[in-house]
Structures are given as structure tokens and as C-alpha cells.
Amino acid sequence: MGKKAEAKKELILEAAKSVFGRLGYSKATLDDIAHAIGLKKPTLYYYYKSKEVLFIEAFSQEWKDSLSHLKRIAEEERNPHERMLLYIRSSLRYYQEIVTQHTISIRVLIETRTLFQELFRESRAKEANYYAAVIKEGIANGTYIPCEAERVGYSIMVVKDLIQFEEFQRAEFHKLDSIDFAKIERDVLFTVSLILNGITH
């Protein structure tokens, strides 16, 4: 992609951030974004095939930077067990903040789950690796018994995802107005604690 096209993409991303920030994800349309920078919708489609992809690309670097910051804060906790729970709790609350800030509907959270997982495959791998690294440190200092740290780390990431998604589906099925993020946090921390207690000396 040439410099002119790259500049156009940057312009679109900046407009998208502004429109999503003002209207929220659910109410914002590609027409709104195109109108904000004087483009026709087909031109916007040339660069971004869907609102979901545009939303994710507009904010993905910000999200990744914020999660890296949460990891750095968690690193100040010396106990591996507490560090893991602190990071998970912080990341869940940050996710809630994103959903609330951008007024993302329950249906959208369900419909875009696969897309988010695909686009964030690298970040998900890093998350599982982070859990594995904390577990390995715990094994080295005697907090945890020897175990397959990578498999345990991956399991923790999957459990966290599934509990969130199950709650999204429950809210959709019962036609609730909002997601019970406090319940998600309680259930995730309870289940992760069960996993960690199973490998604790």
C-alpha cells in the first residue's frame, strides 16, 4: 500500500475513533464515519470491509498498550498466585470499561466474538504465555508443584473467555438490559483459584 493510501487509512482511523467515541459502537455507522471526513461509503469499504474490523483496528493498539500496562502493575506483586489474580481482575475490569465506554450491545459482543478472537490471536497467545510464565516462576520458588505450565496457562485463558461468553449468552437469552460484569469477575476468579489451588504446594 502506497503512502497516499496509508495516509487515507490513518485519516479514516482517526475519524472512526472520534465517531465511535461520540456515538458509541452500536449507534455509529460507516456512513457516519465516511461523512465525517467527506468520503463516499464505497471508498470506505475499499479500506475496511466492515464496521467491526474498523472498530477493532481503530482501538487495538490502545487496548494492547493498556493490557501491557496492567501487566507491569501486576508485576509489582511478588507472590505469583496473587499476581495472576490481580492481572485477571484488572483485565476483566478494563474489558468492562471498553464495553461501557463504547456502548457495545450484548448481541454485538456475541456476534463479533469469533472475529475478535481471530484478530487478537497474537494477544491471546501472549496472555496464555504470561500465565504460563507466572506459573513457572511459582514452580521455581515453591509456590506451585511441578506441572505443565503452558497447558495450565492456556486453560486459564480459555476458562476466562468461556465464562465471559456464557454470561453474554445468558444476558441475551433472558433479554437483560446489561451484562453482570461483577458476576463474570466472581466466577472467573473462583474458577481460576480452583485451578491454581490444584497446583499449589
Q: Count the helices. How many?
A: 10
In N-to-C order, the SSE pattern is HHHHHHHHHH
The amount of helix comes to over 70%
Radius of gyration based on Cα positions: 19 Å
Unreliable segments of 5+ consecutive residues: none
Cα distance spanning the termini = 54 Å
Mean pLDDT: 91
Query: Main β-sheet: number of strands, strand sense, barrel status?
Result: none
Structural class: mainly alpha
Which percent band covers the strand fraction?
under 5%
Shape: elongated
* Number of strand segments: 0
Describe the structure in your own words:
- This protein is mainly alpha-helical and 201 residues long.
- The chain is 78% helix and 0% strand.
- The protein is built from ten helices and no strands.
- The chain has helices at 3-23, 30-36, 41-47, 51-74, 80-101, 106-111, 113-119, 121-140, 149-173, 181-198.
- α1 (3-23) packs across α2 (30-36).
- The protein is elongated.
- It starts with a helix and ends with a helix.
- The model has no long low-confidence stretch (mean pLDDT 91).
Which helices and strands, and how do they pair?
Elements: H1 3-23, H2 30-36, H3 41-47, H4 51-74, H5 80-101, H6 106-111, H7 113-119, H8 121-140, H9 149-173, H10 181-198
Helix pairs in contact: 1-2, 1-4, 4-5, 5-8, 5-10, 8-9, 9-10
Q: Which key phrases capture this entry?
A:
single chain, 201 residues, mainly alpha, 10 helices
What's a concise summary of this model?
The chain has 201 residues and is mostly helical.
